[in-house]
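> call design_seq(struct)
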């Protein structure tokens, strides 16, 4: 009985550790802010990466890193997502530490191989 309870508790704990779509958005933007472009790209769906191409994508991320620094860094990231277990859509709002205006944009996430990835929203 004790082993059974330990197995159930372990399963519940592992399920609670599953990555949430909101955390992928935050991790992506923090990685861009820190100039960790490989890490940021790992949060993107193959569809999005394929559409832009790796070289162009790296250029876009480098530009965003510079823009975030010029805005005093990211102060806060909030999300409002809705969807099911495979697709989430919504809005992400980013506020900056400096004088730049907050930015709000649409976002779509898809679950690929049990991982949430930021994808293109048609």
């Amino acid at each position: 009985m004790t082993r059974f309870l330990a197995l159930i508790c372990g399963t519940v704990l592992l399920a609670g550790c599953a990555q949430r779509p909101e955390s992928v958005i935050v991790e992506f933007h923090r990685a861009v802010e820190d100039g960790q472009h490989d890490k940021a790209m790992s949060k993107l769906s193959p569809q999005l990466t394929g559409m832009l191409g790796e070289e162009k994508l790296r250029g876009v991320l480098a530009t965003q890193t510079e823009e975030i620094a010029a805005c005093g860094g990211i102060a806060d990231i909030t999300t409002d997502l809705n969807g099911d277990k495979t697709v989430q859509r919504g809005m992400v709002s980013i506020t900056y530490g400096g004088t730049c205006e907050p930015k709000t944009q649409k976002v779509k996430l898809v679950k690929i191989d049990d991982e949430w990835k930021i994808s293109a929203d048609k």
